[in-house]
Known about the structure:
By secondary structure, the protein is mainly alpha-helical. The chain has a domain at about 50-104: Arc Repressor Mutant, subunit A. It is about 50% helix and about 10% strand. The protein is built from five helices and three strands. It has helices at about 1-10, 25-40, 55-60, 65-75, 95-100, and strands spanning about 50-55, 85, 90. A three-stranded antiparallel sheet has the order 1-3-2. The N and C termini lie far apart (about 55 Å).
Amino acid sequence: MVCTYLARAAGLKVQTMNPATHSDQAAPASIAGAMRRQIALYPPLAQVDRPNLKTEEAAHYLNRRPQTLRAWACLENGPLRPRRINGLLAWNTAEVKALAGVTA
């Protein structure tokens, strides 16, 4: 409420949420849609047969943020060491599987 008051005092237009049109039941459908997109982007790690993974893919499978893996590469202090191919980080799939505990 205080933020709304300050925004109006500053001359900004404030949109308020109408409880009659807002539905909390729409959230599960959007979450389910996001999960389907996530599954489509990243197949199960056991099915991946490429020799290397991109940083975003490795981060997904290791349940880490991509920036964490980039920090591991930069500081060379993480459990994995990536290869650098034309300036891009390539994470060894077998090492990611071993760290994630996936048998392949």
